[in-house]
């Protein structure tokens, strides 16, 4: 848990009931979680909160997920941060677009349990720490 | 349909008559000369001269008819559109034959009316249009108006001549007005000829002229009759062409409408699916979390209820995803996410997922393989195909086993899923890989099963997209094997 405690997740998801379930579970698993419910808040928090990995929903109010990603990738301070998209199956075009914009990967919400997502996050973060 | 030959015959007839008459004139001149020379008789000379004059005037008329017919032929070739052609036809007779007005009227079969279609763009025609008390196109004669000469000519199937325009306009235009129109047009005689196409009367052609009937040679009347024969053919052709254009236009717009509808259907499925997915995902995540939190503290019964609920949410998600996939396949936008993958691991994980199901059904699940290296595939999609094949194999097997085999052959990997089921009947074989193409036995077997009948259709599309193939071998009451291949060097289609 000590190791995991270092991991800070910025969870961007506008659907309250999904965001709360994910946040609750990840906190239980020892992650530090900061929540954002729209693109604007997400960007604001991205600059303030030193996250290790961002979980970013695509369809968001105010500023959509792809735009958030775009702005993160052009910012000198944030451009190397891990950003994983949260999506539902059937968003092929958006995913292709997201990879072009520099997404590190994506998680399919309707196919993966919160545990599946946690496992993938850990793999990504372990890689991250190895590369550091 | 186009009665070219008929027109050609008319032309040839006129031409041959033309030649015959020329020859006749030639002979007449020689004979006349010879007579004059021999007898120096003034009477003979006059007679001969008269004959020559008659022949020359006949020839002139025939020449005009010939040129009018020739023009008609040109019209057919250059303007297949009905409206244009009708107008040109109305123009050609007065212009070429020197009459004041030409009018075309056609039968409207549906309404049983004779309707004016075109009037010549001549001085007479314009005068008629100006002086008519109603618009030209409003001159509509019911087919039962037997006193009207147009109707009479068609009924009797012969050409009629009148000096009274009212005979042609009644009852649409009253006697007084008809008289005024006739005066303005400056015409004395009108010839009404029935128009025929493919043996059926389709309307009339009217020519009006300043000449009186006795100034009109029988040849002129004949000429107009012949001309109308050609007109019938031409109009028939034009109407066919118009119908064809209309039909093809209708087909085109029907096709456009269908394309739009199809697109709307796909959009509808796409949007609805996504809207449905959000609450389902929320339910699944929260229920999963609930289950996770309770872990071993849930009594067996409650645990079972929870699992049933989760299983149904999963089923609902799968159904929506299947519908989305079908819509994607139909739009040709199935996207693969190809990565280096270990096929053996994929197969093992799918088998593990089915362990409980096979155990419940008392089936053995067996897996054999050759050593296979890494492959470049869409991991999730191949997993999906395997799940579909294996769940089918389990579904249709009541006893015995489900065998899965992996082997390498030339440049591809063949995956086989075999079961000991009832086999697939001959009549059902075609349906297997089609949308909702479930075999009859399948329908009986599924009962409350979650199958949508889309799995194998989607599987086939996925494998095809990866450059592989799918097929099966089955005999009734025997083992059934489903196969799919993955090219070792997968190239994206």
Description:
- The complex is a heterodimer of chains A (132) and B (493).
- Helices cover 48% and strands 19% of the residues of chain A.
- Chain A is of the alpha/beta class.
- In chain A, helix 2 links the parallel strand 1 and strand 2 (32-36).
- In chain A, helix 3 runs parallel beside helix 4.
- The longest helix of chain A is centred in the last third of the chain and has 18 residues, at 114-131.
- The model of chain A has no long low-confidence stretch (mean pLDDT 88).
- By secondary structure, chain B is an alpha+beta fold.
- Chain B is 58% helix and 17% strand.
- Chain B contains 13 helices and 13 strands.
- Chain B has helices at residues 4-39, 42-78, 82-97, 123-131, 149-156, 166-169, 175-185, 218-294, 300-330, 343-361, 379-396, 440-446, 455-465; strands at 101-108, 113-119, 140-142, 160-162, 189-197, 200-209, 339-341, 364-369, 375-377, 401-409, 412-419, 470-474, 480-487.
- In chain B, the strands form 3 sheets. A 6-stranded antiparallel beta sheet of chain B has the order 3-2-1-6-5-4, sandwiched between helices. In chain B, strands 8-10-11-13-12 form a 5-stranded mixed beta sheet. In chain B, strands 7-9 form a two-stranded antiparallel sheet.
- In chain B, strand 5 and strand 6 form a beta hairpin.
- Classes of the chains: A alpha/beta (132), B alpha+beta (493).
- At the A-B interface, helix 2 and helix 5 of A face helix 8 and helix 9 of B.
